[in-house]
């Protein structure tokens, strides 16, 4: 079944971002800073850069699993990687968690770009066009372990760790500033001794326990140890001088566990400093950021209406009726042609569907998740997983992975089994572009299609 409707664009402003969740920057200190900057530097053009998705569907799954397993073997590592490390453990399907982390990474980056653009649009309405947004345009082929076009550092092992060893240009300078880096090897040796010294000292103490006590006494001669580690070391040393009767097994186990935990914190802190460049932009990534900043500035200074509307005609080389062509692509010329600059190059797309209901595909899958295909023409196509068992409202932002211009967008299509909804709203670069009511029939359709501006 197919349902068709024709609607034109009614421009409105999207709601302000919520003050909770991962987008606090947009409504908290970051927003306040941007409000202050134009007043402090009234003649400056201020450019805000977005972040990027570390992972993508092109990231090598095997390398991601290998990385996750490596992280899991390093106690004390607190590097948050989209929640992945917190989920690794016995009985956990690491490959499945890697897939979930990839989806979360892509969704988070796309939503961050939307809300940052939205915040800047609000500020520009109050402070003039002196605040610009530079989308980093890190695409799927630029993500971690995605092949030859990667724009982030991929080293997560120590310098002598073989494949994926850290090797960024700031490594030596960074390590020179890490507190107690010179103790890294000592910490590891003491940690190994503590793992083998699990029973209390007796009349004939364990050789490893005596070696451990000696290393701990040497360690306590340092005056820059963190307090938790110093306390844990003294507690173990006190086991050796404990009056008769000997300390209980529980006392020994607690003391050793406290020492290992304190050592793990210090080892983990230094390990993370070693690989601090991991998943941050490489020199090529930094160059891309610079190029995107310059491009945003040049576009702001030299925006060409002629160039923006060149591909809006019915066919290449045909005479262009400007007003008619703008309407055909959903642009209201009454708002001023300068508005076209905000959406001429489409980098971010968002959809809001209220009352979304999707039927089960046939044959019904084991996992009740349907795929909703959202398209704005041939070049801008997105996929939204949706549970047929949970009808309701959804807002989802997407980054555009190919070059899309306003001239490429002449329609809105929603495809899914038995799909129906009350309303759909489409945003381009955080600005509302299209709004329409859903199909009137109650049965739903496999494809709902709208022609823009007609």
Tell me about this structure:
This protein is α+β, with helices and mostly antiparallel strands and about 450 residues long. It has a domain at about 180-265. Helix content is about 35%, strand content about 20%. The chain has helices at about 30-40, 60-70, 85, 95-125, 170-175, 185-195, 205-220, 225-240, 250-275, 285-300, 305-310, 320-330, 340-345, and strands at about 1-5, 45-50, 130-135, 345-355, 370-375, 380-385, 390-405, 410-420, 425-430, 430-435, 445-450. Strands 1-11-8-5-6 form a 5-stranded mixed beta sheet, with no helix packed on it. Strands 7-4-9-10 form a 4-stranded antiparallel beta sheet. Strands 2-3 form a two-stranded parallel sheet. Helix 7 packs across helix 8. The longest helix has about 35 residues, at about 95-125. The protein is elongated. The two termini are about 20 Å apart. Residues about 1-25, about 80-85 and about 85-90 have low confidence and may be disordered.
